[in-house]
Design brief:
By secondary structure, the chain is of the alpha/beta class. The protein contains eleven helices and eight strands. The chain binds 2-phosphoglycolic acid. The site of 2-phosphoglycolic acid has 12 residues, from β8.
Length: 264
Amino acid sequence: MNANFEKQVLISGNWKMNENHFEALRLVQELSALLHLPNGETVLSESVMVSIHPTFTSIRTVQTAIESDHVPVFLGAQNCHYIDKGAYTGEISPDMLAKLGVQYVITGHSERRQYFFETDEIVRKKVDAILRHGMHPILCVGESMEERNSGKAYNKVKEQLKAIFSARSVEETLRIVIAYEPIWAIGSGMTATSGDAEDMCAYIRKEIGELVGPEVTDGILIQYGGSANEQNAGDLLSQSNIDGLLVGGASLDAKKFVAICRSV
Ligand code: PGA
């Protein structure tokens, strides 16, 4: 808990391939109950924004629940294609997500890079497409354990940032959320220390400033992700370069997720 907290924070729940649409509805209803005070106001502090990222099959159900219950969260998605429509069997376009009221789309997640062979080039096309449709990409970057142990973590992240932010305008840059997610910390219960996470987030801020221009450094929003939970959230969020959290496992438990959102 940081009493001097003035910065805007974004807490995002990445539900991954969990919760069918019945379970997703229950989860959003639980969130609604926990996020509202009896007088209908939100329990969240003004500086906190929240997004939830269900699977594609649950997005419509969750959208309807958010709207009818006035749940104070933004609707998010976990992925999309970069083309608007056409013969791409099994894909979902950014246009379809925007029409559903989706505002934040995770892209470049290490699970997609690793299991679905998404390259920096593909991630850049997705970032462009998400921006074109008026939504915010949540761009994930981060190193493997091997890269960290061999002293290559900063270089890896630098290359990932270069692929997305070179020749990028100030206006577009400020609409992109960056999530620093060390791969070894995801789903492993091994959180980066708040000091290590802070150092990398500070580095990301500086690098983007160099790629785009110094005017973006104060405005960009940088999350940390990787085994974030209700116990470590306050410490992570009190770091000056960490402006939010991308939460996987703990976002499937409404009580834990709301505790994280309230730890600012
Ligand atoms: P985790 O996942 O919180 O379960 O480690 C984070 C993520 O992959 O975004």
